[in-house]
Amino acid sequence: MTIDGVDISVFNAALVGLSAGLPDITNTYFYDGSMKSPRLIRLGGNVGLRKISLNFEVNGVSEHNTALNVSNLLNALRRGSEMEIGDGYSYYYAIDSVGESPERISPTITTLSVVCVGYRHGSTVTQTLSSSGTVTATGNYATPARFTIQKTSGTTFRVNDMIYTGEAGAETIVIDGFAKKVTKNGANIFSRMQMTSFPLLSPGTNTITIVGTGTLTVEYQPIFL
To answer: What is the model's pLDDT at position 45?
Structure first.
């Protein structure tokens, strides 16, 4: 198991049990009894986070060292944002609860239980367009995306309903749907954008309309329910 790319073995810890539950899905319906074949009409809904239960065994060379390893593992989980648990996916997560107290097996072995909530995603997918086209998003749920504009000339560049107005000539603009910011060389330039929302890709084919000279690189992480 890794936390933000760091293997938990650095804490002398091992993942000895896990359970990744299904996401919480709620829907609202309207019952239409006026039709010849009455049916439920879906009005809307919400997809929540899944519960991820983790059980660890933590070792040390002494009782004090074992307690320190437990503390460092908990701190890494608290500060982290992404984990891999060995099922081929990654999870963005937050800690929901921790067991009341670690179970001491011996002075140098302790077990620990942690419950997190989060969502599951695949590896980053990248596609570059030099003109209008499509991006086919894998996964089965809408996912944020990062648009990187490499403008080679002119002062404006439009991607769908997002319009950037800047300086003449070459510029690199990042419209980051993950971090919810727009930057040029790391500096905030949101005021130069005309946009109502950050990039979001639906599962399947997404039409990308480009007006301007340059290229657009699209990055996303497919989300799976």
So the answer is: 79
